[in-house]
Each structure stands twice: as structure tokens, then as C-alpha cells.
Amino acid sequence: MTTLPADTILSVRDLRTWFTTKRFTAKAVDGVTFDLKRGETLAVVGESGSGKSVTSLSIMGLVSKPGGIAGGEILFRDRKERVHDLARLTPKAFRAMRGREIAMIFQEPMTSLNPLYTVGDQIGEMIALHEPVSRQEKRRRALEMLQHVEIPDAANRLDDYPHQMSGGMRQRVMIAMALSCNPSR
What is the rounded distance in angstroms from the CA atom of residue 107 to the CA atom of residue 87? Predict the structure, then answer.
């Protein structure tokens, strides 16, 4: 079993995420290594195209074909102190973990929020994926999350669609979704 120092919750070791076609291979991430300890904040900084987003998508198990993790480890300590190599999880295992144990706030909320559903329904859906809750409880918790991220008049905004909100408010909705299941740390 893979181990991590007790104070480390995420360790990315020699991560390589490549996009391969019949004609060429684009090495979007090639040898990224870092550790994140409890209570720390880590900023990943680099120029456009340097692999910041692909690194994050790799950690979250969201790299689409023709991309894939070509090597390395992504060691993550969950809330029960178990260590998982996210680079080797099955899609089913990752779906169970994503949102509950680990979450990501996407940079552009309009490409991440579904325009056909209210923001309250989308936050509630995240909660229902991981916890058996009633319709009323989903709505109550979605409202609580909108209040937590300081959406003005949250009770009335719960039934708004993403296009009815400003960019800043949509970003707060994404934060509310990421925090809705209390991901580890």
C-alpha cells in the first residue's frame, strides 16, 4: 500500500499527462511534482499553455480522450485517512470520490453549469449524488450553500438559471457546488 507523510493530503509525483493521436503526442504535463500539506494553500502559476489546467483535470480524473495519464502518481489522503493513487482509480471509483472527498472550482462557470437547470437544482444534484437526502433536504442545503458563499437574496436566487446571474455570482455557485458535500479538508 502506498504511504504518505501524516501531514500530506495530496502528493503529485512525476505526473505525465499526454494527448496521443496516430500522428503525434502532445506532452501537456511532463514530470510535475508537488506536495500539499494539511492547512496549506498551493498556487500553481505558469504561462498560458503550461499545463496548469491539465494538471488539475488529471488530479480530478477529468482528462478526456485522446488524453490520458501516461505516468506518475497522484496520491490523495481521504477523510478516513486512506491513501488512493488517483492516477489509477477506475472511473466508477472516481465518481464516488469526486465531490465527496475531493472537489474543484472550475475557472469558467458558464461552461461548467448546465443552462437548462436552476443553480439550486445543480447544487442539490451534487449533494444527492453522494448522500441519500429528500427533495426538501436537497433544497435546504442548496440554499444554505448559496448563503454560505454570500449570494444576495439567496432564497430567491435558488431558482435562477445560470444566465440570470453575473459572472461573479456564477463563480460563487461553482464554489458552493464544490463545498456542498464537505470535501476532505
Answer: 22
